[in-house]
Amino acid sequence: MMRLLKVLLVMLLFSISGAQADESQRAQSPEGARLYIISPANGETVNKTVTVKFGLQGMGVSPAGLDKAATGHHHLIIDGDVLPDLNKPMGSEVMHFGGGQTETTIELSKGKHTLQLILGDYRHIPHNPPVISEKVTIYVK
Question: Which CATH number fits the domain 2-140, given the four candidates 2.60.40.10, 2.30.30.30, 3.30.1050.10, 3.30.200.20?
Answer without folding.
Answer: 2.60.40.10
